[in-house]
Amino acid sequence: MKFKLFILLFIGCLALTAQVKKEQEFRIEGDEFPEIALKSLQPYFTDAKRIRFYKEFDGKKISYESKFKKDRLKYSVEFDSLGKLEDVEFIIREKDLPSETWLTLQHYLGANYENPKIKKIQQQYPLGNRSTLQVLKAAFQNLLLPDINYELIVSTKTKSGYVSYEITFDANGNFLSTRKLVDPNYDHVLY
Predict the structure, then answer these.
(1) Which one, of 98, 104, 114, 54, lies nearest residue 79 by Cα?
(2) How many whole angstroms separate alpha carbon 80 and alpha carbon 82?
(3) Cα separation, 132 vs 122, whole angstroms
């Protein structure tokens, strides 16, 4: 029991010393988007609404992102500067999570943050060792695969006020990483 408490406290300390997420995102035209990325997305733009393209800089690397609404879901598909897929995300609600995963997430948040408020939940399909086609197909079919992640934007109270974090969990709800968000009103579009 003491060992489990130590592990929880250690993970909590890691969360507090996490890296900071400071992104700058700029809207671009479709012809500025990597051609290879655009070709891989083209079949999924059928019946999509509000298709937007962005160039993003996080202080270390440049990436490209397409955001759109399709079949009532808000998608975000991110590519590196060469047009290689990084991940596909879409916004979900807590009821869309498997119940065991939801309980594990709640337990982690309650143990590591004071009065956490979940502002957004995204289901994430990272590229991993699969092909771009496999990841896109799985994401647009909304398959619950063992290698998906859940990314939460959480606001919590600290001594100096409220702070927001981006916290990533695996498909079972196990903690993977956390990044402190710079300012909730930054120029990053939230879908």
Answers:
(1) 54
(2) 5
(3) 19
Residue 142 DSSP symbol: T
Q: Scanning the structure block, which residue is given the tokens 């997305």?
A: 41
The beta-strand segments (E) located in the chain are 19-21, 24-28, 49-57, 62-70, 73-80, 85-92, 117-126, 149-158, 161-170, 175-181
**Residues 50, 76: contact at Cβ < 8 Å?**
no
pLDDT in tens, 107-156: 999 999 989 999 999 999 999 999 999 999 999 999 999 999 999 999 99
**Side-chain half-sphere of 67: how many Cα atoms within 13 Å?**
15
Cβ proximity of 135 and 88 under 8 Å = yes
Cβ neighbours of residue 121 closer than 8 Å, sequence gap 6 or more = 91, 92, 93, 94, 96, 97, 150, 151, 152
- Whole-structure pTM value: 0.81
Q: Can you read off the two tokens belonging to residue 138?
A: 């799985």
Give the strand order in the sheet containing 161-170: 19-21, 175-181, 161-170, 149-158, 117-126, 85-92, 73-80, 62-70, 49-57, 24-28
